[in-house]
Design a protein that fits this description.
The chain is α/β, with parallel strands linked by helices and 341 residues long. The protein contains 13 helices and nine strands. α7 links the parallel β5 and β6. The termini are far apart.
């Protein structure tokens, strides 16, 4: 009798365990499927609701819901609540916690050596060239490599901010740039380019830039206008040197592990929405970039300085770009980008 009782209890416990396991979120808090309930997708951004990246992700959510007839719910975590971009990408790669977000190519370099090429300084001639490249297929080999090695889909290309130097004191020419301690992103090409143009680059986490400049650990950083405003870098670096050394490419990413579990109709909606939201984000950020700088200048928060020897920067960077592309076996990608008119 006692033995039967024990067996019965164990069966009940086992049954409960199986029930819980089948109900548990298969993505550790990410996509939840089945039972007629909405499919829940989690997004993440380092910024607040006003930032161009957040607004781009909101547009993505709206478009998915427009193109997909089934119930789907988006939970977007803002202000670095789920970490930084590098954390989002790692989580998407593992299929946990985060399903979608906008991530700098620098944070993809572990999985794709050619990914940082998208963010290489002096890659694009101007905004028209940048837009034409992103609307075409020149970056497809990188997209395929990331999908294969990281299991993360690049479903659209946002970005559009023109990156300049944020400095504690005015820098207007190559001579003043020499030896300037400047924070750069983690991809090796960033360090090499800034070394080539005679600065002294150092890699520091994005959320540590403000304190590093405030305490004099570094004298400068580089960022687009949206980041300058959001992170209040102008408080510690009010001198903006208009080097215009990069136009940002910020892929909209989606977890491959989550994607493959979704209904085909939702997969199609996500891909379509990603492309359109990327184009929306590019137009949004590129048009707002100069407006933000003008606003901060009119408020007395920054001072803008033309960089008089920009052509020299481009000449110094050229051999580094070529050598780097060869090193990562992306010569054909770089050649195709440069051939686009």
């Amino acid at each position: 009798m006692k033995q039967s009782y024990v067996v019965g209890v164990l069966c009940i416990i086992l049954g409960v365990a199986i029930f819980v396991a089948t109900r548990r979120d298969p993505n550790n808090g990410a996509a939840q499927l089945g039972d007629g309930q909405p499919i829940v997708l989690r997004g993440a951004t380092q910024f607040d609701e006003a930032h161009a990246f957040t607004r781009t992700l909101r547009r993505f959510e709206e478009l998915v819901q427009e193109y997909y007839d089934g119930p789907v719910q988006f939970d977007l975590y803002k202000n670095s609540e789920l970490g930084l971009e590098k954390d989002y990408f790692a989580n998407m790669s593992q299929g946990i916690a985060v399903d979608y977000g906008i991530v700098s190519p620098a944070h993809m370099s572990t999985f794709s050596p050619s990914a940082p090429l998208m963010d290489m300084p002096f890659l694009f001639r101007d905004v028209d060239h940048w837009n034409t490249v992103l609307d075409g297929d020149a970056l497809d080999p990188i997209v395929d490599e990331i999908a294969k090695n990281a299991n993360v889909l690049l479903i659209g290309f946002a970005g559009g901010g023109t990156r300049n130097l944020i400095v504690r004191k005015p820098v207007t020419n190559l001579q003043q740039l020499q030896g300037l301690s400047i924070r750069v992103m983690g991809a090796p090409i960033q360090t090499r380019i800034f070394q080539a143009i005679t600065a002294a680059p150092t890699v520091i986490a994005y959320n540590e830039i403000y304190n590093a400049m405030q305490t004099g650990v570094i004298d400068a950083a580089e960022n687009e206008a949206a980041g300058l405003k959001q992170m209040k870098f102008y408080e510690v670096g009010p001198e903006i040197s208009l080097t215009q050394h990069a136009i940002t490419v910020r892929p909209i990413c989606f977890s491959g592990a989550t994607f493959k579990k979704l209904p085909a109709e939702l997969q199609e909606a996500i891909r379509r929405a990603g492309r359109e939201a990327g184009a929306y984000g590019r137009q949004l950020e590129s048009s707002e970039d100069s407006q933000i700088l003008d606003q901060l200048k009119s408020e007395g928060k920054i001072r803008l300085h033309e960089f008089s020897t920009r052509d020299e920067l481009m000449q110094l960077a050229e051999p580094v770009k070529t050598a780097y592309a060869k090193e990562i076996q992306a010569e054909s990608i770089l050649a195709k980008i440069e051939s686009i008119k």
